[in-house]
Amino acid sequence: MKMDVIGRVRNVQLPVSKPLWPLFEAIMNSVQAINDSDEKNGKIDIEIIRDNQGSLLQTDHSTADIVGFLIKDNGIGFDEKNYEAFLTSDTTYKANRGGKGIGRFLWLAAFESVEIDSVFELDGKKTRRCFKFCTSLNGVEEVSCAEENLPRRTKVSLLNYKKKYSANCPKRIESIATHIIEQFLDLFLSDNRPEIVIHDNSTGEALNLDNIYEKEIVGKIEQKDITIKQKKFNMVFVRLYSTHVGDHKINLCANDRVVISEKLSGIPNLIKRFIDGGKEFVWAIYVHSVILDSSVNQERTNFNLLVKDEGLLDIEITMADIWEGVRKACKEQLQPFTAPIAKSKLERIESFVANDGVMYRPILKHLESTIETISPEAQDDEIDQCLYRGYHQLQADLRVAGQKLLQDADNITDANLEQYKEKFNDFFEKITEANSADLARYVCSRKSIIEFLKKQLNIKTTGKYSEEEQIHDIIFPRGKTSDEVLFKDHNLWLVDERLAFHTYLTSDKQIKQAKLLQNESKKEPDVLIFDKAMAFSETLQIPFSSVTIIEFKRPARNEYNDNENPFSQVFEYIEEIRNGKALTKEGRTLSVTTNMPFYCYIICDITPVLKKWAKNYSCTQTPDGIGYFLQNPNYNAYCEVISYDKLVSDAEKRNKAFFNKMGL
Fold it and tell me: Among positive and negative, which fits the CA dihedral 557, 563, 565, 570?
């Protein structure tokens, strides 16, 4: 042979994701051989060879491993010209058909050996040529050529499928047939095509690809011409009805053969299968162009074009340009099918916003691009996540737009005043609605916190109630301080709206750990809050004007010992704090004055023992009958006992107007 076969095969780039490419190459050779002959009834037979030993262990032989293919045709055969071209690497013999002269090397890239048996006419007589094509020094072995009076035909045997390709090859005959039709759709679209039949040697099943094409696969076919970077492209849109075709595909072709096949993406409102006349189908889009014909690589697995323009060279067109233009054309062409899906999806999103996502209601009209990206099959959680991302993107865009408006304000003239006003009004409308969404989100958050608290207060399936630690963490995380917990991450408003605005807070920490105190007490109030200082003069001031103490008790708890009396506990905390010192930001110590007010909240269920203690401490019952309060002049302390029912009820009442306004 006039080539280094071993080196040539080593240089072939055949991805494992394209295991049928060698079979496609053999089929194309058969098609061309039939076209070159005078045969009026061209026929191609493809036989699937399976692992017979392995298939004996399987009950379903139709999925046994494939080890080879036999491709037979009644074309012109390996006559002298074709054989000479076969022996010449990178031959230009079929260049006018887009041939690269290396397709047969794909066979040896995926198969250990190839056998050719061809009967052709030579000087009016039938001649049979047989040889093995392999990765040997000469490339062809066991060559024979002699007269033999047999019907004209050629058989190519692709044998001993290499494991990495066999493992990725479709197993079922129906799937392989569908792949062949997709690969050679241009051939099936023409009237002058050979009959192609595929056989399975393990099951005896045979499929006529013409029948599959006409009855099961192809419906209406539409074409569209587009221009990308001054290059002309032709797009063929085909509806495939076969159940063996799973995804919408874009196929970039060269010389009427598929080179790259990718799942159609980037098209809004694209569902898995559309319906036409009661039949489901997927789209197969075939893209043809002279630029694709001229830039396909030798293996026909990719194109010799830059992936994208890096701005370093003056590039006419890149793959990124082609994909962008093709997807844009697909979006336009499929719009009649996607528009009803978009309408239905929008109705679902609007229903979600009306019922569960009211915080998005003010800004929904500004999230068109976000809504486009939402899958028509998205569940509520995914819709919520997408709208949330759109909400944050809108905020980011508004920040940029606001900065731009401020910059442009210095350049306002009579000529552009109206344009500036229009931009400003648009910005003001969006920022107002975005702020409304912020408020709506916060109100919805409050509603969900209250509902979650209710669930925690319900008796559990174990017959027990939640521990006070769980309630504590909802209101303010244990073991933390206000320096560690953001405003949005605590729920002090459940107790009192004013508590959210404080100087410093500790939660479930010893009094001595509070940074505003100099104190050695190891007692641990559940929550200790230092209110903001009121500065009436420039003299040195204590850094807080009052102290709030919150003590939690387990829901429905009725068994306490004397040391667990919550009234005694909060008054002991007050004494411990008064016995220490306050620390200024300069590090100076000041006495905690005797007139420093303390506010104490005991949050618990009003059980019989709590009622007894409330009576002993001369507490007054609240008008609603589910709480108590007292004023202790000895400690300058106001103390309130809040039942869990009252905690929830009061929180709902304070927020009721907002909840009603938002339909919550």
Answer: negative
